[in-house]
């Protein structure tokens, strides 16, 4: 499978056995995924200062090291800070009983120069039946989530909410490693295996 020239957040780019994860990407279930949207760049992982080339211009490399795949941050002299009522895109990194820990990647229309830490507390997942929420049914590590900043929180985390129809998981990968599509407000489906998985699904715009 050849690399795409452009990628959106959460899109699988290639196997981790073939590519190393560079800036703007992450590894999940032995696959390299895009953390950001933008042009896909490939370069030698053996030379950190070597300029990256677009995937369409990559030539054969006989070095033993895997080429690194990256997506550049938008050039900016300062980082865009999340504020209360900001809509953000974030990647779920950890699930606990009371909260999901996320990395904020995009604030509004601006790609973050640096990731920000955030949490989605159990009571902020949905607007109804808050006491019945099971975080493991709403999110999984690696999911890309659209959320609302409801509080600047403490010194280490922003507090986020998905308690609106248009908020929740927008991109998810199945346990089999396939990109899924939503079939209801609470389920995604794997197009390859046909299996469904529970999520707090964001209503498409």
SSE topology sketch:
Blueprint: E1 6-7, E2 12-15, E3 20-21, E4 25-28, E5 31-34, E6 38-39, E7 41-44, E8 53-54, E9 67-70, E10 87-95, E11 99-107, E12 110-121, H1 135-138, E13 144-151, E14 158-161, E15 168-171, E16 181-184, E17 187-189, E18 196-198
Parallel strand pairs: 3-9, 12-14
Antiparallel strand pairs: 1-6, 2-5, 4-5, 7-8, 7-9, 10-11, 10-13, 11-12, 13-14, 13-15, 16-17, 17-18
What order do the SSEs take from the amino end to the carboxyl end, as H and E?
EEEEEEEEEEEEHEEEEEE
Helix content: under 10%
Number of helices: 1
Q: Which shape, going by the Cα principal axes?
A: globular
| % residues in beta strands | 35-45%
Instruction: Pick out the low-confidence regions.
Output: 46-51, 56-63
Main beta sheet: 5 strands, mixed, barrel
The number of E-state strands comes to 18
- Taking Cα atoms only, what radius of gyration do you get, to the nearest Å? 18 Å
- The chain-level structural class is mainly beta
Arithmetic mean of pLDDT: 84
Q: Please give the alpha-carbon distance between the first and last residues.
A: 31 Å
Taking strands numbered 1, 2, ... along the chain, how are they ordered across the largest sheet? 10-11-12-14-13
Structural overview:
By secondary structure, the protein is an all-beta fold. It contains 1 helix and 18 strands. Strands 10-11-12-14-13 form a 5-stranded mixed beta barrel. Strands 3-9-7-8 form a 4-stranded mixed beta sheet, with no helix packed on it. The longest helix has 4 residues. About 7% of the residues have low confidence.
Quick recap of the structure?
With 205 residues, the protein is mainly beta. The protein contains 1 helix and 18 strands.
